[in-house]
Structure formats: structure tokens, C-alpha cells
Amino acid sequence: MPEEVLAVRGLGKTFPGVRALDGVDLTLHAGEVHALIGENGAGKSTLIKLLTGVYRPDEGTIVFEGREVSFATPLEAQKAGISTIYQEVNLIPLLSVARNLFLGREPRNRFGVLDMARMNREAEETLATYGVRVDVRRPLRTLGVGAQQMVALARAVATDARIVIMDEPTSSLEPREVETLFSVIRRLRDAGIAVVYVSHRLDELYAVCSTVTVLRDGRRVHHGTLAELDRLQLVSTMLGRDLGEVRTEGLTKFTGDHSAATDEPVLEAKELTAKHQLHGVSVSIRPGEVVGLGGLLGSGRTETAKAIAGALPLGSGSVTVAGVPLRAGSTPAAIRAGISLLPEDRKSEGIVPGLSVRENIALAVLPRLSRFGLVSEVKVDSIVDTFIKRLRIKASSPQQKVGELSGGNQQKVLLARWLAMNPKVLLLDEPTRGIDVGAKAEVQKLVDELAADGLGVLLISSDLEELIEGSDRVVVLKDGAVVGELSGDDVTEDNLMRAIAGSDNLQGVAADG
Amino acid sequence: MTTTHTDAPMTPAPTGPVEKTEQAGPGRADRISALLQQHGALAVLVIVSLVASFSFDTFATGDNITNMATSSAFLAIVALGMTFVIITGGIDLSVGSLFALGGVLAAWGSRHGTLVALLLPLAVCGLIGVVNGLLVARSRLAPFIVTLAAMLGARGLMLALTDEGAETYLVAKGSFLAELGQGTTLGLGNPVWITLGLFVAGAVVLRRTRFGQHVYAVGGNEDAAALMGAPVARTKILVYTLSGLLAGLAGALNAAWLASGVTILGNGMELEAISAVVIGGTLLTGGLGYVSGSLVGVLLLKVIQNVINQIGSLDSSYQQVVSGAFLAVVVIAQTWLGRRRQLM
Amino acid sequence: MAELALRTPTLDKDRVLQWLQKYGVYAGVAVLLVVNIAITPHFLSAENFRTQAVQVAPVIIVALGMALVIGTEGVDLSVGAVMALSASVVALYLGYGLLPALLVVALFAAGVGLANGALVAFIGVQPIVATLALMVGGRGLALVLLPQLEDLRNPTLASLGSGDVLGFPYLILVAAVLALIVAFVVRRTTFGRQLLAIGDSRPAAQLAGLPVRRVLIIVYVVSALLAAVAGVLATARLQASDPTSLGNLMELSAITAVVVGGTPLTGGRVNIAGTVAGAVLIQLLTATLIKHDLPPSWTQIAQAVVIVAAVYAARGRGKR
Q: Which parts pass through the membrane (chain C) (predicted)?
């Protein structure tokens, strides 16, 4: 057995109100490529941040190369030998490739001046071993993302890393670049470096990883050899669902299907294409219908919603609302046509944190409540009042700043902002993520009611139960394209997981089920 | 894709290096954009100078050129410090006041010997630079407001030293300081040689030392720079200190040249310096810039000023209109080019 | 226990900073008033009130526009240049009558504001740089139009500058009315709320479908128009057009007034009452120092200290 590089025991971390990580163990050996997987909020990024000195653990120990360690900063962790390759390349884009590679440890001549010739030569040699042959004097940003990742990787290894953590390194790579990355990972492995590989792409895990740790709700729910699990088992472990046991009655507040949905589609999105993100996604929603958008993180769910709402520049494709084509790439036009988007990133794209509950609710509808630019405070009060009551928003007063509210109440404020607009279509991107159980149930109930009132709803959720019980139909995305659609009795966890795992084509699954 | 189960770390690695050639390099348009950004000012400088030499007999004369060179020198030294600050993504509005303060201190100090005359302005202006740097780097206040306050404070200090501007200290004739400012070597004024020396040193520091790398890294991506081990706070403190030192030195040299510490100088100099730096191709958002470009930017501003003076019928305030318009055009072009090249 | 002991002092410091940021400016004004009434001879005279009011009015007017710009997380450095420009233009067109001259001033100012706003909203230039270009060019243009000081002999303009109602100079009355209007706009109009939302969170404002570009452009135009009003009033008071020195360092005074008045540079909040108090505070500070024969240099140093103290107190409050 190779030498043990890292032994994490009982690691725990609590944030206000959230148990982010709970007694997690992790062992890494030299030359091991270890897959770390889990859905959003499972605790992956918390674990990585604890290992790299971004956070300090509340409990548990980290033993690195036989010594118990506690890193105060990422830099300390890096110097000790734990390097991280982030999803976004964390280098200096405007500096040359060689300067990036050597920043902080540049070769100098006897006058203390950088030895550029040596630096460039060594950079070229080093990168060549990573399969990157470029003019190293060029600015880093002129390289493709894949090559930039390689530079980051080369830098990490050159600083004598013993462990390299890769957080979704392939999310913006071309297939060819992914292959190169894999061969580099294999070389690291053979050099005795331990690699932690985080990805949602199952193919990749099986291609490079030998062992796996699955996290769910802050706990380790599985660990072992990757080959012992097939994809479907992996997905079901990750999502916390038994394969055999497909529930007919769930825990959510959704009350069932909305059979009134028979009219012409209220929303039709056709062949939406955006560079690197969407490859011809089509979705249609009828009035009174809740259409779920399934798929793992990074499959293009959020991008689809944003594209429909005019907030993502489109390469091609069209959106029509109630038969009327929409001007592409204009949020105000989409809103006027009756589309409302509840964004995934509630804190930075949804709420205006410094303004009050009242101003936030009235923000979009304000022009309709005004005459000659003067706000009718009476009308605002009455609308705000109505929605605070209807959605049971808990705030000390309508004047309280939204930034001070709980996540669930912030979400309700955003819902109120859009419902005040009388929308035709509601796009809900992870509407219940990070909010407490009570608010979650209320939001789910509300979605049901709205659909019953004739709204078209697009529901994005990583919560499988929510998706299945809330949707009349589920469109499944993978890598920015539609890979399947489930409707009626076919909307089951089993089918959905198969579609997400992508192990079979959906028709086959449907026939089996 | 096939699911190769690499369940054991003993699996042999693929033999030989991975073949890969990077094709996603800059296209021709991208390269032209880069060239324009870096050398556009030089091209304009050459064209304006050529047109001016053909239009005015008095432009390309030895006297006029040496005059322009000397009068450019002081602004150039200030712009050199500003270049460092702007590359880190900051801005220093206090340099005009520091320039005036440096001049007064040098003239006042010249009564106590050359050493005092040179060290006093450097010490005081450097110290104000350190305070600027500390407030920006450690207290995380916005650079523009910090240096705006320093601009007021330094000017107040200068006025307090000169009996509210009424007192003008003279630099003794024949002293070393006077020689430094007024003398010539090989036909060019000493300040010109000093400026050239400083620019060579500045270029070496920026491109060929670790400190220079940190300056670019901090401006290019502060978070990444910190993760890569660059001392972010120290780098910021150093650039503001350097900017203060150079502004003080420029003021001292200017006083030596004029033989007195004139109190009304330096008003609006920070704007001229910023304009020169930006015209020279340094990005105001930080992370990209050239010392040589700033020198070209200064020369361009001074040549335009000279041309306007040559026209004679035009008031010197046209200079400001042209500078402002020029700055606007350059900033628009830079933003556009930058977006094309995805620098911002 | 140890944790508690550690925490209490920081909490207190936070609270003190918060209080200072909210009420510090009013407290400062009150203290300066009391001190001056106690130790400055003739401070409570009508003549002194008149002098102070007439001097502070243009700063207040410019600071109102600056407060709106800063509320959108921007800054407008061109206000002093716009004052100079309006002084030149008024002098040039006064021959056609006061009203036509004022119209032309408004046109020029709106042009500057449009240029600033377009650079910021459409081209995406940082506000400091966009307005810097017009700060340099604007004053140059003012001097090109009118190279030196020119005496103006227009009775209406002169009475605007020196007249009063019940002892209140027209200048301060105009400033007060404008302050009320701007405060009303911020609090009661669609525009005001959109402005604050944009300053607080541009991405959220964009996704909520707000007319972000239009609001930004209007804000810069308003700032330029207010600066023009200040320029005309200051010119009327001087009974002369002085494009060389009118509005010099005005951008500084206005930014100081806004910041000292509790409007954060990070946008999303605009405090008009505080801004007015901030301008008064700086004016009183200057007056105090001058009346006690402390030289103007001290005023500048004091102003520098006040700016840094105000920004330091505001540090970390509001949006990060």
C-alpha cells in the first residue's frame, strides 16, 4: 500500500444555521486519484476550503504527511504542498505564460534582475511535458482555457505539491483538452501525487479516478473503490434515493398534476444556442403546466432559464410568449411580455440588499404604480401589504432591509416582486435551495396554486423529489442539450436518475419502466 | 466515451509526451488591436511631429526641441510613478500637490546645503506616499478619495510653509542643486538625462524584478495574486510611496531649474500625468501598462502644447480642450480594444 | 467568557462608528455653531449669516448632483469645469438677454452631462475617467470661449446674486428649494428608487428589468445641470464671469460634503439632508479657522483630515 498522504478525521464545520460538514473522514494515498462528489450543498466546497486553509474547522483533525496541520491561509496550505486548481483559472491573465508560471520564484541573475532567457526556456520545457507547446512570452489569456488549466497545473506541481485538488477542472474544456488533462492527471498519479477530483461528469470520474467519496447533506455517505459502483448506483447514492424504492407519496407539498394544461403553449423556446453553454435547447410550456428542468449541475439548466429571460446573449434560437416572438437578449422586453425569472443566485442577482422589503417588492412594478414618474405610495402600500400577507413574509416591518431577512423570506420577497407583475410565465431556478423547511413547503404550495391559476412554470431543482412531484413533465438536460423528456407516469425517480446518469437512452428506460 | 476503469494507481502511463499544439492564439485582428493599444500613441506622436516640422519652421529647431525635452522631463517623472500606481489598478491624485510641495521644500532646504535640499522633499513626499499606501492597502479605502485628501493636505502644508504662498524661496545661484536643474550635458539639460535614467531604471524594475511582477499581478487579478503568494498590501504601499517620491523629486528638480520654489505650480498636474499614462497604453483597470508608453504620452501632450503655442493666434487654453478630447478618444478606443481583446 | 470579553469592545467601536456615520455631521455642525457663538465675535450678526449662506449655496447645489451620481456608485469630477463653462457661456450670450443666455448654458451643461453619461452607461468607462476627460476639456473650452475675467452688467443677474427675501439671500433660497426637490425625487419618484437599486446592485437591477442606462445618463445630466446653476449663481454674485478660477476644486468640496454627510461611495444610499449638512460643516470649519486668523492652508489640511475620517467611519458599512 502506498504511503498515506492525508488523513482527515471527523471534520466538522457549522455556519450560522447550517451544519455544512458533519464528521467527515477522508484518506488519501500517494498516487491516488480520488473522486469527490455530491450535489449542491453536500459539503464538497466546504471540505475543500477546510483542506486549503480558506476556513478553519470547528472540529476534527487534518493530518498531512504524518503531521497534524492547521492552515491559516490558502498560501500556507500551498506552501505546505496542497495546491488547488479552481474551476475559474486563478492566474494573472494579462501576464505572460512564463511570468505566470514563475511568479514569486523567478530565476534571477547575480544583479537580482530576472533572468528572462532562463525563465522562458524553463517555462517552455516544463509546459512541453504537459503537452502545451506555446510561445511562453505571450499573455496567458491568449491561450485556450485548457492550456491555461495546464499552466495552473504545472505551477501547482512545480511548487512541490503532494496533493492537487481539482475543482471541476473540465467545466469549460473542449473534449480534446479534457483528454490532455487526463493524461496529465495519470502522470501526476504515477509521480506519487495524490489528486482530489471534483466533477459532475460521471464519464470523467470513471475515466481517471480510482476511489470515491460521496457527500450528502454534509456527511460522508459512501467511500470506496469507484469500480464497485456503476453509474446508476453512483447517482442514487449521490441523490440519496434507493433504487428499488420508488415512492408514490412524497414529502413535498406538491399536490399533483395540473390536468387543465391543454391549451396552446404560453412559452415556446426553440433551439436556444449559446457558446459553450447551450446547444439547441427547446422547451415549451402550456398555461397551467409545471415543466421541470432536470440534469446535474452545469448541464445548462440555469443558462436555459436565463436565455429565455433575455439575460444571456444567444447565438441562435427564438423565444415566443403566447405566440408573440420576443426580442432576443433584452430583459425588459421579456418582462414586458410576461416572463419572470427567479434567479439561482438570489443574493447577488435577485435581491437589492440595501433596500427595504417594500422597495424590493415594488421594484419591477414601480412604473405601473406611478403617474408622471411620481410613485403612488398608497398603491405601493396596498400591493406590498397584499403580498406580505399572501406569501406570509416575515419581516419586522416593510421598511426592514431585505439583506437582513432569512433566505426563505428573501425568496418570498422576490416571488412577490414578480407576482406583482402578473406574469404569464414563471421561471424558478432552485426556488427552495438554502431556505428552511417551512418556507420551502410554502413556496412549493404556492407554485401549485399559481399553476392552477393558469401560469406556465419552469421549475429547476437539484432536489429530485421536488422536481418529480412538482412537475407535470420533466425535460432532462446534459452538457447543454436535451437528452430526454419524461411525462405522465414516466416521471419517476428511477427514470429521472437513469436519464441524468445518461447510461441508456431514454426510450429504452421508458420501455423498461 | 469508454469507461476505462483505472482502479489501480499502477496502471502504466501513456508513453511519451502528450502531443498538443495550441491553436487558440491571437488572430491578426487581435494582434493589430494589441499593437494599437501599445504603440498607437507613438504613431500619433511621430505623425504630429512630422506635420509640425513641415508646417512651422520654428518647430524642429534645436532650441525648440531641447526646450520641449526639458519642460517634459518633470511631468515625465511624475507620470513614471503614476504608471506604477495605475498598473496596480489604483490612482494617485496627490502628485500635483506633492510636486509643488517638493519644489518649495527643495528651495527652502537649499539654504542648508544640497543634501538637505534633495533629501527633504524626498522624505516628506515619500512619507505622504506611505500614508496614502497604508490607507489604501491596510484600511482598504478607495484610492481616489485617499489621494484626494492627500492632495488637499499636501497643498495646505505647502501653503503653510510659504506664508500662504506669499513667500518664494530661491535656489542659490551656482549651487550644486542649481547646476543639477539648469546645467546641460552633451547639449541636453540635466533634468532630461535624469528623467531618461529614471525611465530606464523604471522599465527594468517593472519588467525585470519580482516587485515589478507583483505590480502587474496585483493589478491583473488581486485575489489570484494573493493566492499565488504575491505580497498584495506591501506592493500597494510601495507603489504609492514610489509615486510620492518621484513627484517630490520632480518638484525639487523643477525648483532647481526655475531657481525658486514656485508655489502656484502643480495645479492639475495629476490630470496631465494620468492623461499621459492612459494615452501611453496603460489600462486604467490595471494589470497592463508600459513605462515607455507613459513617456510617449508625456511627449505627445507637450508637442501638442508646443504646436498650439506655435500657431500663436490660439490661446493656450486650447491645449486643455485638445488634451481632454484626446483623453476621451483614447479611453473610448481603449475600452473598445480592451473589450475586443477581452481584457476587461 | 473570554470570547465575550473580546467581543464587547469591538461591538462598541462598531456602534460608535455607526452613530458617527449617521449623526456625526449634524453633531459637527452643532458643535461648530456653539463654539463660534461662544468665541467668535459678531458670529451671530445678519451680515455674517449672509456671507456664510452666499458662500455655501453653490457648494450645496453642486453636492446635490454629486450625491445622486455617488448613489449610483459613480463620481463626477467635471462639475467644477461645468461651473466655469456656464460662467463663460453666460457672459457670451448675455447680450441676447438673460433668459436666452441661461438656455444656452443649460444646453452646454446637458451636453457635458450626456457625454459623461454615455461614456459611463454605454461604453462602460469608469466614472472617474469618463468625467476626468470632461474636467480637463470643459475648463479648457470655458477659457477658449472667454479667455479672461469679464465684468457683467445685467441688473437682473446682479439682483439674483445680491438680493434677498427677509434677509435670506436668493442664493441660499435657490439651494434650499433645489435640495427639497432632489430629496423629493430620491424619496418619492420611480426614478429615485431605480437609481438607488442600480447603485446597490447593478446585476439585480438589470435582471429586474430596470432601465439602467437611461437612469445613469439622466443622473449625469442632472449633475451637470445643477453645476451649471451653481456656476450662474456664483457668477451673478461676483457680477463677473471668471472661467479661470470659478469652480476650482469644486468637485472636491462637493465630494467631501456628500461623503461627510453619510452617503457611502459604494452607492445604493443617498442622504440629501446629510449632504447639505456636510457642505455647511465644511463652510463653518473654514469660517472658524479664517475668523480666528488661521491661514487658509490650515483649512485645507483640516478638510483633508475630515474627508479621511468620514471615509474611514463609513468603511465596511453599507455594501461591501
A: 23-43, 49-70, 129-147, 167-186, 215-234, 296-314
Burial of A9 (0-12, 13-18, 19+ CB in 10 A): middle
Instruction: Give the residue range(s) of CATH 3.40.50.300 domains in chain A.
Output: 4-81+160-239, 258-338+424-513
H helices of A228-376, where? Answer: 231-239, 301-308, 331-337, 357-362
Give chain A's mean pLDDT: 85
Compare CB distances from C201 to A352, A377, A417 and report the shortest one's residue.
Answer: A352
Residue A507 parent element (H or E): helix A506-512
Residue B215, domain member (yes or no): yes
| 8 A C-beta contact, residue A287 and residue A314 | no
Give me the residues paired with residue A6 across strands.
A28, A64
Domains, chain C, with CATH or none: 57-314 (1.10.3470)
**Residue matched to cell numbers 418529480:** A468
Whether the CB of B35 is below 8 Å from some CB of chain C: the reply is no
- Fold classified for A258-338+424-513: Rossmann fold (3.40.50)
- Rounded CA-CA distance B78/B98 in Å is 10
Q: Which domain holds residue B54?
A: 39-340
Nearest to C311 among B141, B324, B332 (CB): B141
pLDDT of C4 > 60? The answer is no
Of the candidates A341, A373, A417, the beta carbon closest to that of C190 is on: A373
DSSP-derived secondary structure for B25-92: ---HHHHHHHHHHHHHHHHHHHHHHHHHHHH-TTTSSHHHHHHHHHHHHHHHHHHHHHHHHHHTT---
pTM exceeds 0.80:
yes
Number of compact structural domains in chain B: 1
Structure ipTM:
0.82
DSSP label at residue A401:
B
Reported as a single tens digit per residue, the pLDDT across C40-92 is 888 888 888 888 899 999 999 999 999 999 999 999 999 999 999 999 999 99
CB contact under 8 A, A207 and B217: no
Residues of A in contact with C200 (CB under 8 A): 352-355
Task: Give the nearest partner residue to A341 out of C194, C207, C318, using CB atoms.
Answer: C207
Pick from A281, A285, A288, A336: nearest CA to A306: A281
* Cβ-Cβ contacts under 8 Å, C132 against chain B: 271, 274-275, 327
Chains interfacing with C (3 or more CB pairs < 8 Å):
A, B
| Residue with cell string 448675455 | C94
CATH of the domain at B207: 1.10.3470
Q: B–C: how many Cβ contacts below 8 A?
A: 137
Residue A65: count of CB within 10 angstroms of its CB: 16
Contact B25 A189 (CB under 8 A): no
B118-123, Cβ contacts within 8 angstroms, sequence gap of 24 or more: B118/B177, B118/B252, B121/B248, B121/B249, B121/B251, B121/B252, B122/B245, B122/B248, B122/B249, B122/B252
pLDDT tens string, chain B, 344 residues long: the values are: 333 343 333 333 333 333 333 344 446 666 777 777 777 888 888 998 899 888 888 888 888 888 889 889 999 999 999 999 999 999 999 999 999 999 999 999 988 888 888 999 999 999 999 999 999 999 888 898 899 899 989 999 999 888 887 788 888 777 788 888 888 888 788 999 999 999 999 999 999 999 999 999 999 989 888 888 889 999 999 999 999 999 999 999 999 998 888 877 877 788 889 989 988 888 888 898 989 999 999 999 899 888 888 776 666 678 778 878 888 888 888 777 777 665 54
Q: Which fold is adopted by the domain A4-81+160-239?
A: Rossmann fold (3.40.50)
Would B83 be classed as within a structural domain?
yes
**HEC readout, B203-221:** HHHHHHCHHHHHHHHHHHC
Range ranked top by mean pLDDT from A452-461, B160-169, C128-137: A452-461
Residue A138 in grid coordinates: 505571450
